[in-house]
Amino acid sequence: MVKSGPRTILTARTRLFRSPFLLQRVRNKRQQEAKDRQTLYQKLTPNRQKRMKIINAMPGIGAMTKDEVDRFLESKLNIQLATIDEMGDPNIQPLWFYYDKGDNKLYVMTRKTTKKVQNVRNNPNVYFSIDDENFPYKGVKGKGTATISGDTSKVMPIVEKIHLKYLGTLDHPIAKGNIEAARSRHEVLIEIDPRFFSTWDFGKM
After folding, report:
1. Global confidence as pTM
2. What span, in angstroms and rounded, lies between the C-alpha atoms of 158 and 100?
3. Would you call the peptide bond into 136 cis, given omega within 30 degrees of 0 as the criterion?
4. DSSP for 110-172, written as a single string
5. How many Å apart are CA 173 and CA 73, to the nearest integer?
6. CA 139 from centroid of its chain's CA atoms
């Protein structure tokens, strides 16, 4: 008779936990939970222009007004975007972005195979910061809900706006390469719906 001791049972459980089939089931479950959260958020958020909440990030330091935020986010600064991975750790990447002041949303483009896309699919909560390191320091940061779109009818206009913002032309090799990648569906759009803007402006001290 073959006896199964605690070590044998533990080894079997470890193998089961590491099996590709079980890991894929866990990933699928997390992705479905993230989609359910996005659907619930969209139902609870009416499709209308909302009034953005502006808060002071640093007591004693001046904050920006909404008009000042709109102008600031039209600058060529990068956005630092933080997504949350499967271990609950933040992953931060600097990116070009486009800000639509009409609906108060931020947009970035990226390859659909990137880690940030995988993170957003599993957890749509993101954090962001855009800041000017030249004195007088100023910036905007916040928390938001991200969604991913691969619909070229939505992606292409934003991709063009991003490159016009940073390069001033669509004829630059970088612009041409990225636009073609978006047209071929290798690039996707991450849409960030901020819950608030936390701002600071040392020029108002």
Report:
1. 0.76
2. 10
3. yes
4. EETTSHHHHHHHH--EEEEEEEE-SSSPEEEEEEEEEEEE--HHHHHHHHHHHHHHHHS-S-S
5. 25
6. 18
64 Cβ partners below 8 Å, 6+ apart? 54, 72, 138, 140, 197, 199, 200, 201
The mean pLDDT value for 59-63 works out to 91
DSSP 190: E
Describe the crossing of helices 20-44 and 115-122 by its angle, rounded to 10 degrees.
70
CATH 3.10.20.310 fits 55-204, yes or no: no
Nearest to 122, CA basis, from 35, 5, 18, 17: 35
Cα 39 to the center of its chain, rounded Å:
17
91, amino acid identity: N
User: In angstroms, rounded to a whole number, what is the distance separating the alpha carbons of residues 25 and 117?
Assistant: 19
Domain ranges within the chain, ordered by starting residue: 8-41, 55-204
Tens digits of per-residue pLDDT, 118-135?
A: 999 999 999 999 999 999
State how beta strands 105-111 and 98-100 pair: antiparallel
